[in-house]
Amino acid sequence: MGFFSKTLHVAIDALLVSTSLAGIKSSTGWAFKYHTLTEDKNIQKYIQNYLYCGEYTLDQAAKLMQKYPDFFEKSSK
Asked: What span is annotated as the signal peptide, if there is one (predicted)?
């Protein structure tokens, strides 16, 4: 496995973790307190952007599911 494929694999795994955290936040209201990890504002901004990528991915997946009602249905809780 080459460098590019390993890097891609890690990036996709990181996106899956971020999307999972976004799903937890969306369904339960529990959010990751990233600002308690460090006081460095640059690192906090990086983590905030990372978590935003997961929220964006989750929103796009929901829009895609809404676009194809023949394959997906909204369940009532």
From this structure: 1-22
